[in-house]
Write a structure and sequence with these properties.
Layout: E1 3-8, E2 11-20, H1 22-39, E3 43-54, H2 56-70, E4 75-79, H3 83-91, E5 99-100
Parallel strand pairs: 2-3, 3-4, 4-5
Antiparallel strand pairs: 1-2
Helix pairs in contact: 1-2
Length: 103
């Protein structure tokens, strides 16, 4: 599976793996959204440590999760992104929506 969900208290962590592209992003979004809906977290952590490739679909994935979380006031953190993915996230302005933590 490309997403592993871990729930600890009010924190949902989604460990993403493999490639995030047009084909894989939809299933990832659905799994993360289901976990958020079921657990109503105050914090969602997207762990990119095991992501080997990401295109603009990954940016959309992050932005969509931010929109969902903002309705309840929950925060979004992104961890473990490789240097190229971290750079892409910064260029897209994601750091204005989520806390970008180093690898």
């Amino acid at each position: 599976m490309a997403v592993e969900i871990n729930v600890t208290g009010e924190v949902v962590t989604a460990r993403l793996s493999g490639e995030i592209d047009h084909h894989s992003a939809r299933a990832m979004r659905e799994e993360i959204d289901n976990a958020v809906e079921l657990n109503m977290p105050t914090l969602l952590v997207l762990d990119f440590k095991d992501v080997s490739f990401m295109d603009s679909s990954g940016i959309g994935l992050v932005m969509g999760r931010f929109r969902i979380l903002s309705k309840s006031g929950a925060e979004l953190h992104i961890t473990g992104a490789s240097s190229p993915i971290h750079k892409m996230l910064k260029l897209a302005g994601i750091e204005k929506l989520a806390k970008l933590e180093g690898r």
